[in-house]
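Long-time lurker, first post. I've been practising inverse folding by hand and with some scripts of my own, and I keep getting stuck on stretches where the structure tokens seem ambiguous. Below is the full token string for one chain I'm working on. Before anyone asks, I'm not after the true native sequence, just a reasonable design that respects the backbone. If someone could post their per-position residues I'd love to compare against what I wrote down in my notebook.
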């Protein structure tokens, strides 16, 4: 009896991939993510302040940084915690739900940030609309990109694990052949 044929016959060929478990990022990664999005907020705020006439830089930066942090956390937590639960839906429904999740998270975060300076928000609605719109767009792009990265990373890990299992089976077959001789 050929050992290779018996091992190949019992090995699962099209085993379903293990379900993806949502995972929270570690504290250092979360801190670096928040710091990076703080810098993004500075850049977006400065861009908005310089492109709109009559808007002071300091209040826009004071609001844009928390906006960007809220958007960054929305993208990160959506990609790591929420989106894995949406894998069972068809592509177009999943994509629509992902965009809706990211945009609603960005808008909710923006509404929460309005509490920091409600008078500025009410006095300069055009600047606030631009801040929310730009940050929502950035949240969608970043969240979908981050989810794509996480999906590809999980696929590489699964392929590597399958390769390691196959190598272990090949070693066992080699040992079995050596014993049969």
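-- Answer (accepted) --
I ran through it position by position. Result:
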């Amino acid at each position: 009896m050929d050992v290779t044929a018996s091992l190949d016959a019992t090995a699962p060929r099209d085993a379903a991939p293990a379900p993806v478990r949502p995972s929270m990022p570690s504290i250092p990664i979360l801190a670096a993510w928040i710091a990076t999005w703080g810098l993004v907020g500075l850049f977006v705020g400065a861009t908005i302040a310089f492109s709109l006439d009559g808007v002071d830089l300091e209040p826009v930066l004071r609001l844009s940084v928390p906006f960007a942090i809220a958007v960054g956390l929305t993208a990160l937590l959506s990609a790591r915690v929420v989106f894995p639960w949406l894998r069972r839906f068809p592509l177009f429904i999943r994509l629509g739900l992902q965009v809706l999740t990211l945009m609603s998270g960005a808008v909710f975060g923006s509404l929460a940030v309005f509490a920091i300076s409600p008078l500025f928000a009410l006095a300069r609605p055009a600047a606030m609309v631009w801040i929310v719109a730009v940050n929502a767009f950035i949240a969608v792009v970043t969240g979908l990109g981050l989810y794509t990265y996480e999906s590809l990373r999980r696929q590489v890990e699964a392929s590597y694990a399958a390769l390691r299992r196959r190598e272990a089976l090949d070693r066992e077959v080699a040992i079995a052949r050596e014993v049969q001789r």
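A couple of notes from the structure itself: The two ends are 13 Å apart (CA to CA). The first helix runs from residue 3 to 10. Happy to go over any region you disagree with.
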